[in-house]
Task: inverse folding
């Protein structure tokens, strides 16, 4: 049975969420993972947009939030400490940016596909000003961070 999905996206804040069906997983790991299947740069290439590079600093920002959501069992852009995606990205020494969230039993391929099927998430991924990204999951919580000039 498919669970209803809701989109909470703000192009002003450059954020988006894809809640999905609940799932389990090891909430302690919060590992950054490589995108599988159709990766972010394939979608950007198809749209005529320059590729982005993986950033360990943006991986770290994504991992912090994925772990927070998994360990405290919530789903949303505001962290349990009140942090925003901008604050988490800046804490890693980068400028502001965008954040896509997903919750559910995804893998790297299916979560990217879900984000590309959502107008707000797709806009974040295809934003021409973005030059770097980070990706992490913890249990069934997925976080993609995107920023500019953040190697």
Result:
């Amino acid at each position: 049975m498919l669970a209803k999905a809701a989109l909470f996206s703000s192009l002003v804040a450059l954020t988006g969420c894809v809640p999905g069906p609940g799932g389990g997983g090891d909430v302690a790991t919060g590992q950054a993972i490589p995108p599988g299947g159709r990766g972010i740069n394939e979608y950007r290439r198809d749209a005529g947009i320059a590729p982005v590079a993986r950033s360990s600093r943006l991986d770290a920002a994504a991992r912090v939030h994925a772990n927070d959501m998994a360990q405290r069992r919530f789903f949303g852009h505001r962290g349990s400490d009140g942090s925003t995606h901008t604050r988490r990205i800046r804490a890693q020494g980068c400028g502001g940016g965008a954040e896509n969230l997903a919750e559910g039993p995804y893998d790297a391929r299916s979560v990217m596909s879900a984000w590309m099927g959502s107008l707000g998430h797709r806009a974040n991924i295809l934003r021409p000003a973005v030059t770097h990204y980070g990706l992490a999951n913890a249990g069934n919580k997925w976080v993609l961070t995107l920023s500019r000039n953040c190697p």
Summary: The CA atoms of residues 71 and 151 lie 28 Å apart.
